[in-house]
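Chapter review. Work through the record for ATP-grasp domain-containing protein before attempting the end-of-chapter questions.
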Amino acid sequence: MTIPAPQETISPPGTLLLIGGVDAVIDRAVDLGLRVILMQHPDKLTLRQARRAALTLVADYTDWSTAEPLARAVHAATPFGTVLSLTEGGMETAARLNDAFRLGGASHTVSRRLRDKWLTRSRMAELNLPVPPFALVTDRASLAAFGQRAGYPYVIKPTGTTAGYGLIRVTGPAGLDDAWTQVRRMLGKRTDRGSTLFTVRDFLMEGYVPGPEYSVEALSFAGRHVVVAITEKLVADEHFAELGHALPARLRPAGEKALTEAVGTFLDAMDITDGATHTELRLSPAGPVVIESHHRVGGGHIGDLVREVYGTDLLTEAIGWATGRRPALPGPPPARGAAGARFVVRNPGVVTTVSGVEETAARPDVLSADVTVRPGDTVRPLRDNWDRLGSVVVRAPDTTQAVELARQLAEEEIRVGIRPADAVVPRGNTAADAGGRGTPGTIRTEDSPPRKAVEGTVRA
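Structure tokens for ATP-grasp domain-containing protein:
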């Protein structure tokens, strides 16, 4: 590993070590006047990131034996005052570096508790928060025993992945053999679609929670939690893919109050004191139940929706508060209209044509529209978020209009021709997997072929 000689022995004020993240995260940090040292996974690096960061470290940041000595070497040459991650795969590394350098921020204990769904459930049970029955999968017999104890249906999920990857719904004893086969196939392996940064180490079983689903987008300031938005989630019971998001959520005042209070109690229980959180809940007949939470801004264009409706940029506020560049929000911002996102989904098969995207994106009531597939790509059966083919994000006077407009555009105006596939492709070989991801050690942009990492990067 070689490190270029720094131009100065002491970094200027406001130097941030950023672990992973998409272009928008680096953009917000640089726009805040921060000097960004980016530690980025080779699969995730883009040319824009390398150009905007003052120094780019190309390394598998999920590997502590690589990330820790690299961070120490860089800190000795060009010190940083803050370590932060706003991407799921970088959370624990950032927290461990905060501990190692005594920089404050979320500790590894707190980060691990939120990242690991078993630890989250255990903490909730310990503090008597509402929680469904739950247990770890140990063998085939444990699946049957849990069904007898908790009833059906129930859900099996990896303890440390995201975006619905690996979720299994068990509807009755007849489905146990298939569920066990799926568990054994994924256990011990890296996630092989979308984000490949996670290893499936354990599976959690938990009782099914009925009721509509929401997510709460919050910012915390020294232990004070500000709920910026409540997002209404559009879901279906037959799969685990989110079909869309809309806000403000169509809730009665009592429901909004219950969700807000539940999230505040949950964040206190998890010892979350600062930064952005995205907490997913179901409003069950007995009240709100937290399904899971993340110490970052929610995906699926939620940040775009919040910025449109509330005028609050969650990334800017989270980065600015962590680095002393932004003050705490005084309270929840008022809504100014509504917005919605709808994801493009189609039946499985092979893509023959794609049209209508540019025309849709050009509409004044559309914030963005995109499709990630091209003719010849294979579309797999819809199971989780990685099987979606694109999205449409819209603005409207109220939430109902936003939901309907986004649905109509995603289903009717964006046209994706599909012919039935002769066979289902193996997991990890689909159009959604391609997603613009480059091969390890390359930089890819939409308008350029893969290139070797640019000059000025450090490779571990």
